[in-house]
Amino acid sequence: MKALGVISTTALFLILGMTFPAFAQEEHHQQEAKPEKQQEQAKPAKQEQQQQAKGQQEQKQQQQQAKPARQEQQQQAKGQQEQQQKQQQQAKGQQQQQAKSSKQEQQQQAKGQQEQQQKQQQAKGQQQQQEKAAKQQEQQQARGQQQEKQQQEKQQQQQQAKSSRQEQQQQARGQQHEQAQGQWAHNGQKDSRGHEYNENRFGREHHARFQEHGGRYYDGRREYSYGGYWFYAAAYPAWFYREDVYFIMGADGLWYAVAYGDPSLMLQVDIS
């Protein structure tokens, strides 16, 4: 057993002795071949790096070239956006303007309708006022006509009463005159001083109206001309100037002024 172990150990060393030089030689060859292999392996990596750098540079150039295009696109996008905003603002302004115009038009229409209603109300009020005024005028005219009719009837009644009274007075005066004829002078009779009574110049048929300051003022008295003579009195009553008067000579040869409307009113006068 001990001899087998020695043999095995010897064989192991022998194998190792033979293997190690070969391994060393192979490792040496490998080390010699390794730089070439590394160079061969590094070459594609370098090329790849160069390609990558070239690609990055090209990409950078493309980016640089693309930058103006992108900026242009951005400018175009920005311009389009501004254009859209402008269009939106214009559309909004147009919409607001249309809404404003529509609102103003509605307000104008409402105002016009209101003014039309006011005009109609005014016209209606004026018509009512005119109708009221016309009605009042008709009523006033009717009242005026009625009052005028009543006044006319009253005046007619008064006139009839006055006429009747005057007629009665005339009849009474006529009776008085007939009764008094016996006391008046006859045509051609003369007074104590030779003044002749003539029915063509004196008497009831020759009445006249005298003024208070008429005639003449002579020798401190007021004288009035009548029938060719100047008559005077110491004082004249109010009826002398208010009534028509005629002069007549009495049967006693004296002269008298008599009121035409009322023969009972007499005034003795003298001739100058």
Structure explained in plain terms:
With 272 residues, the chain is α+β, with helices and mostly antiparallel strands. Among the domains are: 104-183; 184-271, no CATH class. 68% of the residues lie in helices and 11% in strands. The protein contains 2 helices and 6 strands. It has helices spanning 2-180, 238-242; strands spanning 216-218, 221-226, 229-232, 245-249, 255-259, 266-271. The chain has a 6-stranded antiparallel beta sheet with strand order 1-2-3-6-5-4. The N and C termini lie far apart (234 Å).
Give a concise summary:
This protein has 272 residues and is of the alpha+beta class. It has helices at residues 2-180, 238-242, and strands spanning 216-218, 221-226, 229-232, 245-249, 255-259, 266-271.
Structural class: alpha+beta
Walk across the major sheet and give the strand order: 1-2-3-6-5-4
Determine the mean pLDDT.
79
State Rg: 81 Å
Assembly state here?
Answer: single chain
Q: Tally the beta strands.
A: 6
The description of the largest β-sheet is: 6 strands, antiparallel
Number of helical regions? 2
Tag the structure with descriptive keywords:
rod-shaped; alpha+beta; single chain; six-stranded antiparallel sheet
How does the SSE layout of this entry go?
Elements: H1 2-180, E1 216-218, E2 221-226, E3 229-232, H2 238-242, E4 245-249, E5 255-259, E6 266-271
Antiparallel strand pairs: 1-2, 2-3, 3-6, 4-5, 5-6
